[in-house]
Design goal:
CATH topology of chain B: Lipocalin
Helix content of chain A: 55-70%
Largest interface: A-B, 19 and 17 residues
Radius of gyration of chain B: 19 Å
Number of domains of chain A: 1
Largest sheet of chain A: 2 strands, antiparallel
Distance between the termini of chain A: 14 Å
Number of helices of chain B: 2
CATH architecture of chain B: Beta Barrel
Strand content of chain A: under 5%
Number of helices of chain A: 4
Oligomer: heterodimer
Structural class of chain B: mainly beta
Structural class of chain A: mainly alpha
Shape of chain A: elongated
Number of strands of chain B: 11
CATH class of chain B: Mainly Beta
Helix content of chain B: 10-25%
Number of strands of chain A: 2
Order of helices and strands of chain A: HHHEEH
Strand content of chain B: over 45%
Distance between the termini of chain B: 42 Å
Radius of gyration of chain A: 18 Å
Largest sheet of chain B: 11 strands, antiparallel
């Protein structure tokens, strides 16, 4: 069995956990009614997670461009290999697009992102009341699209593991 | 014969008002009152959209100046209608009971070219405190532009009660910035 490298495995699972945490925190915080310290705290944490994912995604992409992953198992039909590759590309794209859209939304709302409460991130756009609702929708739609793609990706891995009983999932397990 | 002294008094008053009157007309569209504070170290600027400022200023006699500002608390704009509504509530501004914040100067002293030291009484949420802050003034195209930054502690005015007293969430220090254009 040709496993993914340790670096690839570490980045995959670390980013996966952070994305799931940011997703669940995001869903929780927007459901808190009114204005509470907890809500504001969750918003800050959510943004810190987003910035972390974005940074790790950049590292992962640079690393991935120099290190080819092991080829798909020969037993997998060609169309499935192509589909998997397409899904992987889409996940890479969303891994950037979701945090970037959230980042822009925050700045359009006039709220700077201060990473870990320590480092103020650069303002790419000025506060913009017209752009704000649009970016909110974009962030939401991209997030939900990503959730859908992540579920498909995970179900496919489980299908290989439990039905085809091949090494697809095993070679990515830590 | 009783009316005559009255008329004399009124006209005297009128004259003295006219002589001392350098009350400037503020341009509300170009003037701003902004509060800047930090929420978990995130700097937030919020504007008071409705206020009136009255400035009695004569560059030749700066020490005779007077200034007062009245702010409509409900016009505080955090950039989000839902949050704007929240901060008018009891634990923040309590706008229902205290709809106005005000500043009235007690003394204004020249502090060098284009600079003034303003002392006065600031009232927010029914609490009045003596404060002083530096104000700069410059003349531009027949208009006077006043800029001042007044740092206050929000908790001294009970802004943010209960769980909002936590200054690690919203810092105690708030800077109120005035930018008033008057003619």
């Amino acid at each position: 069995m040709q496993r993914y490298t340790k670096t690839a495995i570490a980045l995959h699972w670390l980013i996966a956990l952070l994305i799931i945490a940011a997703f669940l925190l995001g869903l929780t915080m927007v459901d808190i009614p009114g204005f509470t310290p907890t809500k504001l705290k969750y918003f800050s944490w959510h943004k810190w997670l987003g910035v972390t994912v974005l940074g790790l995604a950049a590292i992962r992409l640079l690393w991935r461009l120099r290190n080819a992953p092991p080829p798909a198992l020969a037993s997998i039909p060609h169309w499935q290999q192509l589909t998997a590759e397409g899904v992987h590309h889409l996940l890479y794209l969303l891994m950037f697009a979701v945090p970037v859209s959230g980042y822009l939304y925050s700045y359009a709302a006039g709220v700077p992102v201060v990473y870990l409460g320590l480092f103020q991130m650069p303002a790419i756009i000025d506060p913009n009341p017209e752009l704000k609702p649009l970016l909110k929708t974009v962030h939401y739609v991209l997030t939900m699209s990503m959730a859908g793609v992540v579920v498909a990706h995970a179900l496919a891995a489980l299908k290989h593991h439990f039905f085809e009983r091949d090494d697809t999932l095993k070679r990515m397990l830590p | 014969m009783k009316t005559l002294p009255k008329i004399a008094l009124i006209s005297l008053l009128g004259i003295s008002l006219a002589a001392g009157a350098a009350v400037l007309k503020t341009d509300p569209a170009k003037s701003t009152v902004t509060a800047t504070f930090k929420q978990m170290n995130v700097p937030i600027d919020a504007k008071f959209k409705q206020f009136s400022a009255s400035i009695d200023y004569d560059a030749a006699k700066p020490d005779a100046s007077k200034a007062s500002v009245e702010i409509n608390i409900a016009s505080f704009d955090l950039g989000d209608p839902e949050y704007n509504k929240e901060v008018t509530k009891k634990e923040w501004f309590n706008a229902a009971q205290f709809p106005k914040a005000s500043f009235v100067s007690t003394s204004i002293k020249s502090a060098g070219a284009g600079k003034l030291t303003v002392m006065g009484k600031l009232t927010i949420k029914g609490k009045t405190a003596d404060i002083s802050f530096p104000l700069s003034v410059k003349s531009e195209g027949g208009k006077q532009i006043f800029d001042g930054a007044l740092p206050i502690k929000r908790l001294a005015y009970n802004i943010g009660e209960g769980e909002w007293k936590d200054t690690s969430m919203v810092a105690d220090e708030v800077v109120i910035k005035f930018h008033v254009i008057a003619q």
